Amino acid sequence: MISLSLTPTSSWYLILSAVLFAIGTFGVLVRRNPLVMFMCIELMLNAVNLSFVTLARELNDINGQTIVFFVMVVAAAEVVVGLGIIVSIMRNRSAMTVDDLAELKG
Amino acid sequence: MNDLSAFAGPSIEWLSISPLLALLAGALILLLVGSLTNEWPKHWYSLTAVATSVAAIALSVVLWRDVSNDGAKLLIGGSLTLDHFALLGSIAICSAVLLVSLITSDYLSRDGSDAPEIYALYLTAAIGAVVMISSNDLVVLFLGLETLSLSLYLLAASNRQESASQEAGLKYFILGGFASAFFLYGVALTYGVTGTTRLIDLNTALTSYISVPRNDVILLIGIGMILVGFAFKVSLAPFQMWTPDVYQGAPTPVTAFMASVGKVAALVALMRVFVVAFPSRSDDWGVVVLVLSAATLVVGSVVAIVQTNIKRMLAYSSISHAGFILVGLEAASHRDSVNAGDGLVAVGVYVALYAALVVGTFGVVTVVARNSSSEANSLDAFKGLAKNQPILGLVMTVFLLAQAGMPLTSGFVAKFGVIQSAVAVGSYQLAVIAMVCAVIAAFVYLRIMVSMWLSDSATTEKVSVPMLSRFAIGLAVAFTLLIGFLPSLILDLTSNLAELATK
Fold first, then answer.
1. Helices B428-453 + B310-332 axis angle, to 10
2. Are residues A63 and B164, on separate chains, in Cβ contact within 8 Å?
């Protein structure tokens, strides 16, 4: 019989974070809409945050939790810059996928 | 509950971080005063950036003398370092900012779009770069990396009229963000194994106890992901796909900036992380660096041959330069050899010489190609250049010969240094690959030279070289030749570069 008294351990969170990171990576590689690719990058960064928090708890060390705040600030700054670039492109053309952006190749 | 009144922040050595503060002040002045006042007289925005970088260089030189007298040390509770390796990188970065600002001013004034933002972004990118190369903590390094990268994404997309520039910005942004996430996950995994992100503490933690095998696998995955993050940033094969597109699409002065500041910062930081934090695992990463270096050298020099756009050619040439610099890192991975420190010195010298060289080359391209359309940047634009304008042709020839590594130019001193460091530790196979690739890459530079000197131009119209660009290109070519004739000028200064800050 499978025991029903499953209590989450920290390795659950580490595995969840690895899975989220993998989903994000896969999304960036497969999806073609720049906004969705961008969301996948954010997913990857937040997966890392989950790892940091779990590891900080495991190591009983506060530094890992403070790192998360820095990463969140960086992620927010990245949103500002990324959306700025995407909006600026959308002004020139509508309904864009990254395959439409193929002017540069050699 | 913890008593908050017992909390004491680290002491901050304001004088030792003065180059950073100077750059920050310059960026704030440009942004604040620039947005509150009417348009400044021609070239003043650029001259503000130039004055800022001159101040930062002067402060770095003063700090260099302090380090020579008192030795290297750690700053702000051990999160930043102050040593010759970091200062040499800072001086190279600030010099590149100086030269690029001069070129940018002429480039933007041509169609009347000169504005303070672009110089402010140069300076914030330089702040990120300087933080990156002097960081002693993987998280501080990440913050520097992001400050640099976010500024570079905006700079690449800074030409709002040109759709190629927008496309370059988006491509760079998506792949750069992807690489940053990889880097950060690598940091998280190494933090999980060692419990620290400080470079020096990482080394202590990894050498002071025998890690259990399970953790060792996680540690190696972490180191690998940090390396992949860096490989994207410095465009090592097979992570180089974005480089030619972004270099081609970005406005040419910005390309010069990315190829100099972006590369120097990422390579110096890569060097420091692996030499300071992970020397105990150098057998593992040394092999990976060897393969990456060989692949980068081959891809950079072979694919450049089939390009017809001058900016793409130079993009591949910058990829092959990154391969050469990795030869130095590979040399530094042979810890048991007495000459392992040579690799670090060779890399320091290489990046300092390369920064001036690449800005000069792109400076000439900016002047000749007028705009960033693909016709203006094709190799045809350079046809007969030397016949129409012998001096400009001669200057470009000097830059190209230096990139190829001809003796009596700075490029030779740089390439000789890394190959010598590889031979000194007995990694002959990589030295041979590097030399063969230098010959293949020389073909590309010769192709540009042949079309400059031997073909006839379609027009007899001369390109005008504006004052500031003339000054910047003149400085770069003078430096290239000076170091070529008197390499001891830089070699004597950098002899104790391998003494990194440890406490």
1. 160
2. no
Residue of A nearest to B374 (CA): A104
Buried b (16+ CB within 10 A) or exposed e, A46-83: bbbbbbbbbbbebbeeebbeebbeebeebbeebeebbe
A3 is a domain residue: no
pTM for this entry: 0.93
Question: Which residue of chain A has the CA closest to B185?
Answer: A48
Q: Which of B345, B243, B228, B337 is nearest to B289 (CA)?
A: B228
Interface of B with A in 8-47 (CB under 8 A): none
Tell me the pLDDT tens digit for each residue of B318-364.
999 999 999 999 998 888 777 778 888 999 999 999 999 999 999 99
Q: Check B171 against A52: CB less than 8 A apart.
A: no
Q: Are A77 and B146 in contact (CB under 8 A)?
A: yes
- In total, chain A counts a number of residues equal to 106
The alpha carbon of B265 is separated from its chain's Cα centroid by a whole number of angstroms, namely 5
Express each pLDDT in B111-143 by its tens digit: 778 888 999 999 999 999 999 999 999 999 999
**H-assigned helices in B134-212:** 138-156, 163-194, 199-208
Query: Three-class SS of residue A31?
Result: coil
Total domain count, chain A: 1
**Token pair listed for B54:** 């001159």
Query: Which residues of chain B make contact with A37, given a CB cutoff of 8 A?
Result: 174
Three-state secondary structure call for residue B55 = helix
Q: A59 to chain B: which residues are within 8 Å by CB?
A: 192, 195
Let me know if residue A77 belongs to a domain.
yes
Cα distance between the two ends of chain A: 61
- Determine, for residues B143 and A74 on separate chains, whether the beta-carbon distance falls below 8 Å: yes
With CB atoms and an 8 Å threshold, state whether B153 touches A85.
yes
Q: Are B368 and B469 in contact (CB under 8 A)?
A: no
- The interface predicted TM-score of the complex, written ipTM, equals 0.90
Residue B500: which residues within 8 A CB-CB, separation 6 or more?
A: B72, B81, B83, B85, B272, B275, B276, B344
Dihedral (Cα; B74, B76, B82, B85), 10-degree rounding: 90
CATH number, domain containing residue A49: 1.10.287.3510
User: Quick check: helix, strand or coil at residue B495?
Assistant: coil
Identify which of A34, A86, A104 has the shortest CB distance to residue B245: A104
Q: Find the helix or strand (DSSP H, E) in which B17 lies.
A: none
User: Which secondary structure element, helix H or strand E, spans residue B465, and what is its range?
Assistant: none
Asked if residue A104 belongs to a domain, the reply is no
